[in-house]
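Cross-check.
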Amino acid sequence: METRDSEMDAEAAETDTDAEAAAAVDESGRATTSRWPGVIIGIATVLAIVSVFTVWTRSQMLDTDEWVDLSTGLVAEPEVQAALADFLIDSLYERGNISAGVEERLPPELQGLAGFVSGALRDPLTAGVERLLGSERFQTLWETANRAAHETLVNILRDETRTGITTAEGAVALELRPMVVSIGERLGVSTERLDQIPEDAGQIVIFESDDLDAAQQAVRVLDFLSWFIAVVVLALYALAVYLARGRRRQVLGTIGWSLVGVGVVVLLAQAVARRVLLDALVENPANRSAADIATGVATGLLRQMGWAALIYGILIVAFAWLLGDHRWAVAIRRVMTPVFDLSAGAVAGGTAVLLLVLWAWSPGRVFESWATGLTFVGLVIAAIVVLRQRVRAESLERSSNRSSEGSSDDQLVATTG
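Predicted model, tokenized:
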């Protein structure tokens, strides 16, 4: 009998040991799994910052419409117009031989003063050019010159050159000679003098073809990374949510805070980059105001993308809270019940309208490539589906509870009667 009891005690002890071991393994597995979402979100955050700067660089370098908008906005600033006016007048004086033109118009006895008169005219001419720079004709010339130069540059960098474009011994330049000639015409310079202005007058070189192969390779890499990194970031965020079983709402909120952090880092980097560029590039203090405007316009898209990441993050945090059990979240979901109780077609139509608005806005350039655009659309649809399921489930639960309460009241009345 004692032997049998001893065997039973041994078996019980062994069972307890196995249970403890299984519990320990389970806890260890949970601990390991619980760490992975945080690690993945950390990696995704770093890649998200890289993605923002990659998309910004690609847009500034290779998007002709973005380049034209940037340059047009830049030249609309008074400080930049003053600097450009100085450059154009210098080109006109150096290549147009203004002194000789003035000498031709003076009486013989005063021709010796041509140099003095042309010099005295320089400041009023510069002021006049500044006024011309705000005219519609100039804006058209400026936009045409910028678009032609940038389209040529992009075609060369993507190895899509057309007949007549060569980079073997030259460079891609912004051709401002038509503007120099137009200014000369407005100022009364003779046609003969204007015809003598060289073709490269007012030319601004924006790309030289000495190392074209390396530049083309860099553009191919940039084209690929601009969408690939963004897709990887979204995939990592989705993986983090998938692995966080039992606490996915909390992890979704963490992802939102991750994007808030990305936005803050990008905005700080944009501010620091402007300061560094100003200190590094501006030698003449008189040019600092124009340079400050130029760097502000050049980094404007980066600032927009930083704010977009910040807003996206706040919206995701709010969505995670909306799915929670807070009293205010439950109240908001109850208010949303009539909307999500509509037919699936009506909800799908509302979702389509929302996506069209987001497509037109394209915050953070998310629709710049098909890969990031489709991924973003999928995430928006998934969020609406999850929210609709939660709202409808709670609506059915409330209806069921009311039915149960009504049945209980009926039974009580019947029993009392």
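The first helix runs from residue 2 to 62. The first strand starts at residue 171 and ends at 175. Passed to J.P. for a second look.
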